[in-house]
Specification:
By secondary structure, the chain is mainly α. It has 2 domains: 80 residues, Four Helix Bundle (Hemerythrin (Met), subunit A) (Up-down Bundle); 39 residues, no CATH class. It contains 4 helices and no strands. The longest helix has 37 residues. The protein is elongated and about 60 Å long.
Length: 120
């Protein structure tokens, strides 16, 4: 991969990571709020439902943060953009669509087909 492409992806991933981390901080502040100030059971239920929804989103973002950090580490180690399955270069277009991908489109298609057959 060209040096300019690596710089582009490093900047993109770094911005994405900063954005996700700032969301995590705001979520923690929001979770400190208590529903005890809500006397109405329906209001408490809505509050709890929204909090659970937010926690599910943040859980997914937590997994994404790990993938972003791994991709940034791969850039530093000089292996970013290489398919973990076949060792071939991952197409730039694929990386632009999914910067944290670990597999080329051919290998990812095969993995998904196997998962579909096995039900996992």
């Amino acid at each position: 991969m060209k040096d300019k492409d690596l710089k582009y992806f490093k900047a993109l991933l770094s911005r994405w990571l900063e954005e996700l981390l700032s969301h995590a901080d705001s979520t923690m502040n929001g979770l400190r709020e208590s529903d005890e100030s809500l006397p109405d059971p329906l209001d408490r239920a809505v509050f709890d439902s929204e909090r659970n929804f937010t926690l599910r989103i943040r859980d997914r973002e937590s997994m994404l943060i790990k993938k972003i950090r791994k991709s940034l580490q791969d850039i530093e180690e000089g292996v970013y953009g290489t398919c973990e399955s076949c060792g071939e270069d991952i197409a730039i277009e694929r990386l632009k669509a999914r910067p944290v991908t670990r597999h080329c489109i051919r290998c990812k298609t095969q993995i998904e087909a196997r998962e579909k057959l096995t039900g996992t």
